[in-house]
Amino acid sequence: MTLFARRLAGRLRSFPEDEVVSVDDASVAELVGRLRRPAVFAKVLAVSMGIQVVAAVGNQIFFRAVGYEIPVLVNLLVLPVFFFLFLLAISFGSLGIREEPYILIYGMFGVPAEVALVMSFLNVGGLVLNYAIGAILIYTVRPKWGESDAVE
Description:
By secondary structure, the protein is mostly helical.
């Protein structure tokens, strides 16, 4: 069992029994039904908005790194559209289709196609670096509990 699965299993054991929903046994309605509670919805919304803001700031740093100035508001508007487009099951990890939306959507805000293409490549490079760091951590960091605590 992977490190992530062991940590997730340990985290799930700390919840009260009535709060834990097995993904195998739960329906989509049950899982989405939890979002109807205002406190849960507010937490999910706050985390989602935080992710969008961090991504926009990261993209702003990339734009400045290539020497092109663009308002942060443009990134705040454009990146959620990209996130939605790349969730569509058109290709494997949105590879190969990522460049055209960058060129088209950033082109609407006056960004040259060359800069938009470089932004696409920098974002893919950032994702690969992020995944590589996660993979290294998963395979090198050992859990503090013993193998006997692992859930099979």
